[in-house]
Amino acid sequence: MNAVVFDIETQNTFADVANDWRKLRLSVVSIYRYQANAYESFTEPELGRLWPVLEHADLLIGYNSEHFDLPVLNNYYLGDLSRLPHLDLMLKIKAALGFRLKLDDVAQATLKDIKKSATGLEAMRWWKEGKTEEVKRYCEQDVRVTKELYEFGLNNGQLRYRTLTGEILTFPVNFQATPASAARINLTLPL
User: Fold this and answer.
1) Contact 138, 27 (CB under 8 A)
2) pTM of the complete model
3) 3-172 has which fold?
4) Rounded Cα–Cα distance for residues 167 and 109 (Å)
5) pLDDT of residue 44
6) What's the CA angle centered on 66, arms 43 and 108, to 5 degrees?
7) What is the band of 1 on the pLDDT scale with cuts at 50, 70, 90?
8) pLDDT digits 0-9 by tens, 66-120
9) Where are the domains of the chain?
10) 94 CB contacts (<8 Å, ≥6 apart)?
11) What are phi and psi of 43, to 5 degrees?
12) Shortest CA distance to 12 belongs to which of 162, 117, 20, 105?
């Protein structure tokens, strides 16, 4: 399957834009392409190279991507990325547990030696300091964590989280996805 795992980082916070996600500015988008077995990162001027990758994917995989990453990316895209086949791991986790969990909390309880490398606020600070490569490395690590969680859940039908008392609990997940059979869309312009 031609699946793509993705994550974004922004230049500003919701507080900076009075909670209007349409005013959030993208700093970096990082992806992992299963077909190429490769990670890539894109900044705003490079988004033209990203759109065909997303449009031709059988499945987009993200964490909190339905309510954050895709709406912010849609600020830049001519079409509607939410129409592409998509699996939001956080929504699957919420469906299983009844509440949301942070990516790093699930990763640290489920995976060995794979966790986030920093926070989104640190990535914003790096961006403002002109440390684009550090933001890319951070975002790619988030994609790696999301990819590893996806694969673990897909292969084992379960993930884990740590309770407030420190107990690690296992819960079932279903990451089986049926890619949409609709024809591929192409809304990018060859510039």
Assistant:
1) no
2) 0.88
3) Nucleotidyltransferase; domain 5 (3.30.420)
4) 10
5) 93
6) 85
7) confident
8) 999 999 999 999 999 999 999 999 999 999 999 999 999 999 999 988 766 667 6
9) 3-172
10) 100
11) -105, 175
12) 20
